[in-house]
Amino acid sequence: MILAGERQIATLTASYLEQLYREIDGRSPRVTLDLDTVTGRALRDVDPAKVYTRPFKQVWTALSEEAAFDDALGQGEHRLETLIKTDLQLARTHTVREVSAGMPRFKYTVRELQGEYDCALCIVASTQRYMKENLAPIHPGCDCLVKTVTADYDPGQIIDEEKLQQIHDAVEAALGQSDRSARAVDYRKILVTNDHGEIGPILGFAGQHFTSRTDINIPT
Fold first, then answer.
1. Quick one: 190 exposed, middle or buried, by C-beta within 10 A (0-12, 13-18, 19+)?
2. Which pLDDT does position 37 carry in this prediction?
3. Is the dihedral of CA 20, 22, 24, 29 positive or negative?
């Protein structure tokens, strides 16, 4: 069911990008998308059957630590929900990267916020532009959309300084530290992009550690 959802999102994302490109270019792009490259094992380079045993292990571990059954089950459900949301988002971002590679009029991508609430990490990312060949950073459970942009010039990494400053102020209020004269490069000392061993770039707070691919012994 999860794989079917990933394939549906990939197909819809590809169709959406093709429609956008046709509107700006007047021609249909020649795009052939191999769904196996943007779904399933391709997303993490780990067998999905192994990935989706983790919620069960979460329950078993919690029970071994004498957690109440309902609490242990809740932990497993939360882990499962996070895995599903992350893989669906990965299917979208991988598809954007693959399909936009054959669309020369699309120059870069931006993060489009969704929903009633957005975490500070996503809001910061929405003030940046990303080159289309790079996978947009995400965090587990992120529901942001990746929007392609056509431009005659590169606007630079920061595309919304006012919003970035607002988040900068909020971080200062919450954490008690900030450099009022700083811009994005200094701001990343508080909010940075880490490299997760399976799902690639992931947004997180400075000081967080994620297992990188070099830390994982993956058989060839």
1. buried
2. 96
3. positive
